[in-house]
Amino acid sequence: MVTPDTVWDCFHPVNQLTGAAEVAEGLLRPIRAALGMAMRRDDIFIGGATWMGQGNWVASLGHYVGNFNAPLFGVVPNGKLVFLRYGEYYRIEAGKIAEAKIIIDLPDLMRQVGAMPIPEMLGTEMLFPAPATHDGVLPNAPERSDASAQLVWNMLADLHVYDPENFSSTGQTGTGGYWHEQMLWYGPAGIGSNHTYPGFDKFHRVAFLTAFPDRKGGNHFCRIGDGDFVASGGWPSMTMTHAGPYLGVPATNKKMSLRVMDLWRCENGQIMENWVLLDYVQLFEFMGVDLIAKHQEIAGR
């Protein structure tokens, strides 16, 4: 299933694993031990040749579902049902996994057990929903793949440039805008989810750009379109300076980076839904906050 020299870049504190044995010991077995008879629930599972980077990729998003009975990467168990949110991207060579990028939303797991260490939160914390159209697993509309991908790439190019006074970017909304007026944006723990572009601004974008005004994107390992769905990821995707307060953490003025995964659903030439996974355990580490240690303190460990 994997090449002998397979490399899996994972969320902090797991980070890089090389070879099947390291992947099994460092990622797969800990999840199985923590969740017991866990089930995997894919809500999005798409694939294609990348527009950036190299090779053929598969991107998936969903939850590992099970009773949380043993510690997982420092998160304290509660013995109850949890939904462990994941984003997984795999580069395939000759039918085997040669490379993987994995983000598991550990802060969301901390939230579910009642010991959330992020000082402030923005939007609505919730389970990531499946696409409203319920067709995210192996979509069957290849004729729309390129148009969907181009729509998202155009949006990202314009989103990068914004007015520092009101944080607006050309073409994002309104007649002919990239985003549907009823767009839904699903973010990681700490940011949460929001509805409509004003909600996206209020509960994510303004706070992020205020904290990291010089952020620059890039370094994408893949960008793929599959029917109405698009996936992109960067490792790291953003480099920036922590110049303002963010989620309760005062500015440190330190340079830092951010690992990012995005998946989108397009509908009639606009973006309707966006699922986002960010490695916030690592980001907070850069900001001088050990989320795992704070979580354990809150949980009484």
From TrEMBL:
InterPro entries attached to this UniProt entry: Cyclase_SnoaL-like, NTF2-like_dom_sf
Alphabetized Gene3D superfamilies for the sequence: 3.10.450.50
GO biological process, any: polyketide metabolic process
Protein name: Putative ester cyclase
Lineage: Bacteria, Pseudomonadati, Pseudomonadota, Alphaproteobacteria, Rhodobacterales
